[in-house]
Amino acid sequence: MKQSLKRSLYCAPLLYPLLGWGVDLQPNDIVAPLPDKRYAQVTYFNTENSTFYKNGSVVSSKQFGSPVLDAQSVIAKLTGTYTLANHPAASFVQLPYGSVRPAGSLSGMPSDTGVGDVTLATAVWPYFNRETRTYLGLAAYVTIPTGGYSSMQPFNMGGNRYTTDIQMGYQQKIIGDLDGMFAIDTMFYGGNSQCSVACLSSTNVALNQKPVTTTQAGPIYKINQIFTVSAQYYYVAGGATTINNVYQNNVINTQRFMLSSLMHTDIGRFSLQYGRDMGIQNGLIQTRVFTLRFMKEF
């Protein structure tokens, strides 16, 4: 099980649903890996967010009349596979570098460019059957606040807090070359005691966030030995924030989709993904997410 990029941008409390992604899995990430393999992966991630919602209603005040928040990152990841107590296992380290740029009615706010937070993860497969294409995987992730962060900026590539995530994924054959997958994860957030501008405060205050649970499910179809396609549905819930223990009434309740394609070649595996939010309760709605990945065994 491998992690794709979380929404790691740090911004004002009203925009906090941008932080609400859990761990997105690519097609066949739940398939147990062969042991003693090493992989390098580079991901380009691009997203646009617009139209601000508060408790399901569009906010049209001056600052949020026509907001646009663009983000892009290049993410490097190294993965190693092995056997743990006779079960397949994998671990990876991931580091992003990117930028977040406000535009539209947010254009007066500064952008940020730099290194994001490091993520470490380990996954193990308690059950796997390659003949029946049935897999059950468990994974744990921790994100370390190593990225750039300034409490005097509303947007930062670094989060200035630890996060942990626990995930379970299941995949099995449905018929022929068609598989179905299901995954659920819960992300837990550490506190940030140095939240100033992002918390609409002139001094540093304490920001805390409730856990976020993400459920994803969908079909995966292997067209041939080269091409695989997938469609995934996501439901995200939780994540309300408090500032100095004052509840902000900004629970995340988001539905979104992702379309994916994989291409296996002699030089490595390419993947292309496109998706967007279908509905959101609080924050900026994501109108586009685009990812391009290349992974190679070495």
Could you explain how this protein is built, in words?
The chain has 298 residues and is mainly beta. It is 0% helix and 62% strand. The chain is built from no helices and 18 strands. The chain has strands at residues 38-54, 57-58, 67-84, 87-104, 112-115, 118-129, 134-144, 163-175, 178-189, 192-195, 205-209, 212-222, 227-238, 241-243, 246-247, 252-265, 268-279, 283-297. The strands form two sheets. Strands 1-3-4-6-7-8-9-12-13-16-17-18 form a twelve-stranded antiparallel beta barrel. A hairpin with a 3-residue loop joins strand 17 (268-279) and strand 18 (283-297). The chain is globular and about 60 Å long. The model is unreliable at 2-20 (pLDDT under 50).
Summarize the structure.
This protein is about 0% helix and about 60% strand. With about 300 residues, the protein is an all-beta fold.
SS elements, strand count: 18
The percentage of residues in β strands lies in over 45%
Q: Which descriptor suits the 3D outline? A: globular
- Counting DSSP H or I runs of 4 or more residues, the number of helices is 0
Averaging pLDDT over every residue, what do you get? 90
Distance between the termini: 19 Å
Helix content: under 10%
Strand order of the largest sheet: 1-3-4-6-7-8-9-12-13-16-17-18
- Give the SSE order as H and E letters: EEEEEEEEEEEEEEEEEE
Instruction: Let me know the largest β-sheet.
Output: 12 strands, antiparallel, barrel
Rg is: 19 Å
Runs in which pLDDT lies below 50 for 5 or more consecutive residues are 2-20
Structural class: mainly beta
